[in-house]
Design goal:
The protein is α/β, with parallel strands linked by helices. The protein folds into two domains: 14-79 and 330-438, Aspartate Aminotransferase, domain 1; 81-326, Aspartate Aminotransferase, domain 2 (3-Layer(aba) Sandwich), CATH 3.40.640.10. Helices cover 37% and strands 14% of the residues. Helix 3 (102-114) packs parallel to helix 10. The radius of gyration is 21 Å and the shape is globular. Mean pLDDT is 95; it is low at 1-12. The structure holds (4S)-4,5-diaminopentanoic acid (HOZ). The site of (4S)-4,5-diaminopentanoic acid (HOZ) has 8 residues, from loops.
Length: 439
Amino acid sequence: MGPVTAVSATVGSTATEDLSLRANSLMPGGVSSPVRSFAKVGLPPFYASRGEGPRIFDRDGRSFIDYILSWGPLALGHAHPGVVDAVTKAAREGLSFGTCTEREVDLAAVITGALPSVELVRFVSSGTEAVMSAVRVARAATGRDLIVKFDGGYHGHADAFLVSAGSGAATLALPDSPGVPAAATLTRVAPFNDLESVEALFAREGDNIACVVVEPVMGNAGLIRPLEGFLAGLRDICTRRGAVLVFDEVMTGFRVAWGGAQVAFSVRPDLTALGKVIGGGMPVAAYGGRAELMELVAPAGPVYQAGTLSGNPLGMAAGLAQLTELAKPGVQEEMAGSAARLADGLAGAAQSAGVAACTASIGSMWGLFFTEGPVRNFGDAKRSQTEMFARFHRACFARGVLLAPSPFEAGFVSSVHTDTDIAETLEAASEALEEACAA
Ligand code: HOZ
């Protein structure tokens, strides 16, 4: 497969270059969210014109097999007809009411039915809001202030989480953001997969630790699986020490399994944050958990949290339509098969090319690090070859395969990525590895 060429470039420069120049004079860094900068892989930001199934098209008319999938939400691929129809119907009935609607009750029923730990759920509009609000509930429930997070974990951009943060913050080397006041001193950080470090934090300050917040499978430091017993160990520590266990399943929810990682690993957190897939591509997120905790949330209880567009009817319609498809027998397994074939194929291609690489998949998430591995935490991930990743990314891009522009992001597949798409991707990846090695 040769490089994909632009078919609708403007005279003298591409539409992408033109847009990028304009955007830089109008928006910080030219983007609406830092992960959209492709600077670390040496490319301009991607200007999408449309998406269809597993493919995304840019403003220069190029077509790519998409493994970003809007950073996770598009479990059914782009513009899934069922989701588009549901949103269109909802839009005709009204874009927002600021009142309760039947759809939010229906989506709440699907979520509480799928996640055994979630008895009550509150809808919000972003993952940041969801985790921030869950922490507020945990602090109110325990009367304690400190939170524990993991190195390289990303939980949105609320102040308390911009400490040793993953995702774009790691990619841009901004793990501790300026502008975060003393509130951040209430955050403690441990290495992922290291129960002893968590025990040590509790030994020192356990009386004031409100909660442990964890991505049960790390997805914002690249994909890092929990070691056997790690999540159960966190559950045990939190129970013993009277702290709240918060699973950030914004990424893993309905991707690692129907429900999420808590189903796959049979560990029940006290509170869960959700987002991405539950909104089918619309700005929907949620937090929920044990009724005793969630009844602290206003107006049932005193913990205040609110939002004009929370439970927005278009978002609820998109989420319901997507989850209805994902609940069908075999869909999760098919996606998991595609992700596994991709991860195994990439590992094989790297081996053939003589490149040290370590790949993993779980459910419909997958990851690739250019290192021998094993990668058990963010420290290991940072020792991978980021320059090699950048060369590989560019070579894949030139062959019509769109990967997240950072080794510190998970990859995704959708239910409409076919065996042919995966085979084409692996062919492109083999060529890309050769090119990256030769550079
Ligand atoms: N969790 C998303 C990717 N790691 C973040 C999306 C964004 O920051 O725009």
